[in-house]
Amino acid sequence: MEALLYERLDDRKVRCHLCAHHCKISEDQSGICRVRVNQGGRLASRVYGKIIARHVDPIEKKPLFHFLPGSDSYSIATVGCNFKCRFCQNADIAQLPSDRQGLIIGEDTPAEGVVSDALAAGCASIAYTYTEPTIFFEYALAVAKRAKREGVHNIFVTNGYMSAKALAMIAPYLDAANVDLKAYTDQFYRDMCEARLAPVKATLKNMKAHGVHIEVTTLVIPGLNDDPSELSALAAFLVGALGPETPWHLSRFHPTYQLTDRPNTPAQTLHQARQIGLDAGLKYVYIGNLPGSGAENTVCPNCGNSVINRFHYNARTSLIDGNHCAYCHEAIDGVF
Ligand code: SF4
Description:
Layout: E1 6-8, E2 14-16, E3 24-25, E4 36-39, E5 42-45, E6 50-51, E7 53-58, E8 72-77, H1 91-94, H2 96-99, E9 107-108, H3 111-120, E10 125-128, H4 137-149, E11 153-158, H5 164-170, E12 176-180, H6 186-193, H7 198-210, E13 213-220, H8 228-242, E14 248-252, H9 267-280, E15 285-288, E16 298-299, E17 306-311, E18 314-318, E19 320-321, E20 324-325
Bound molecules: iron/sulfur cluster (SF4).
């Protein structure tokens, strides 16, 4: 499948403009993501239609807490990623092409098959998730266009590294996104992910401008991105650039993949981070991967009552009337 968003250069080289890496790729070579290859001076996607994972998940698991809570999302992925996060939680599929000499595996599935399966499963949305949807962009776009025609919503769970051109192409079909803002220092992005911070901030602002519903996730890793001043700066960026209504999900780290020398994030650190977010002015700050913390519930910013109760990513009860708190009628931000 010929790739979108690339230019042909001299000597049969190409430059990919799908993500902020903008890889220059020689003939028979692939880009950083290892799923886009230069074949005779043309760039091709090697993962089009090759689904490695598909599940019906509660939308809360994306996590999206303010977009159709309580609904199911048909969740798909291909292998591959354009980041090299040392703490990758889905490395077996996300890093497979990088770790196994370009290996691509997956079940060939036409775009219409994804949409019909989602409809048959009663899902209100399709989530492009588990790995990085940007790297299977052509396929995601084909599925998303068809889904939109069928009244099914589209959700990206993404590292936010897509180019502005890529975002402009998918935005008309994209209803919501959970974007990782993994830290607030360029050093972290360089050292831990082999990427950079600025393009992620730019994508978040662009998504907001395109009218995409945005929620942001930060995996809090002891000693790496949990400094209170860094978290304060991150939260201030969310308030200033995206608005205080932006839900912020603070997720608990556990040692995995190449980052096994750090402990689980202490509960106290997560609660402190949550308070930092609230003090910065964010209205909805959640703690994930810590069942029973009580910080998964949506609390009305006016009266303080819990309007959606959750336990481990499942919405249990909802006391939202339309888009309003059933207790005091304050508007609750989101799509309900
Ligand atoms: S998607 Fe990103 S990482 Fe992959 S080839 Fe294109 S620019 Fe490089």
